[in-house]
Amino acid sequence: MTDKFILGIESSCDETAASIVKNGREILSNVINTQVDFHKKYGGVVPEIASRKHIENIDSVIDEALFSANMTLSDIDAISVTYGPGLVGALLVGVSSAKALSFATGKPLCAVNHIRGHICANFVAHPDLKPPFVCLVASGGHSHIVNVKDYTEFEILGRTRDDAAGEAFDKIARVLGLGYPGGPLIDELAKSGNGEAVYFPRVKMDNNSLDFSFSGVKTAVINYIHKAEQKGEEINKADIAASFQEAVTDVLCEHTIEGALLSGAETVALAGGVAANSALRAKMTEKCKKHGISVIYPPPVLCTDNAAMIASAGFFEFQKGNFADLTLNAVPNLPL
Ligand code: KG4
Ligand code: ZN
Question: Which domain holds residue 181?
Answer without folding.
Answer: 131-299
